[in-house]
Amino acid sequence: MSGSDPHADQPIRTAGVAPEEADAAVVLVHGRGARADGMLQFAQEFAREGVHYVAPQAQRGTWYPNRFVAPIEQNQPHLDSALAHVGRAVDEARSGGLPPEKVVLVGFSQGACLVSDFVARDPERYGGLVLLSGGLIGEEGTDFDYAGDVDGMPFFLGVSDDDPHIPMSRAEATVEVFERLGADVRFDRYHGRGHGIFEEEIEYLGDLLSEVAGA
User: Fold this and answer.
1) Which of 3, 23, 114, 168 stands the most exposed, by the fewest C-beta atoms within 10 Å?
2) Are 177 and 120 in contact (CB under 8 A)?
3) Long-range contacts of range 118-122, CB-CB < 8 Å, 24 or more positions apart?
């Protein structure tokens, strides 16, 4: 492990069919203090046949040390290292030859923040971007001036109005950015549910995966 690249030697777990046999792939990014294997277990709740599942592991279970609304420099070098590790997971998802539009990116909590930044910084038309209680990374007042075109990519963000970790204002700002980038946005605001993954989101994931794998 390098001090400047703390996630460099962390594993990438996989499940489902082999990449060269896959009709679609899902990259699943865990939250703070969690495990890649836990995300693969979560995937069983919306799994479909013919899918390759990929889950990168963070060093010590944490992608970056401070809150996602802290100044960016306070989360370095962990943040850049984490983004690079997500990139390796996407490469694994595509290692059988799948185009980006057959790859769905899913993150929960800290993982959702990470995948939102991964796509916003280098916009591409993936099969979908699903943020389960998360939003773009940066301190209050950040001008998220990302530019590019995701060409109608399905985008989902779900968050509760009493989530102690994800301010609704940041969720709204994240949705605005992806609307500007040309995503097909669904924004679910829940009431009084706290911080978690909810039944509507699992249903959405199953439907999205059926569409991406079957298209």
Assistant:
1) 3
2) yes
3) 118/83, 118/86, 118/87, 118/90, 119/150, 120/144, 120/146, 120/177, 120/178, 120/181, 121/83, 121/146, 122/148
* pLDDT tens figures, 113-144: 999 999 999 999 999 999 999 999 999 999 99
One-letter amino acid for residue 77 of the chain: P
pLDDT at 33 over 50: yes
Neighbours of 137 (CB within 10 A): 27
- When computed from its CA atoms, the radius of gyration of the chain, rounded to whole angstroms, is 16
Biggest CA-to-CA distance, the chain: 45
Residue 29 in contact with residue 73, Cβ under 8 Å? no
Backbone angles phi, psi at 79, to 5 degrees: -65, -50
Q: What angle do CA 174, 36, 190 make, to 5 degrees?
A: 35
Q: Do residues 104 and 126 make contact, with C-beta atoms less than 8 angstroms apart?
A: yes
Rounded distance between C-alpha atoms, residue 7 and residue 111, angstroms: 14
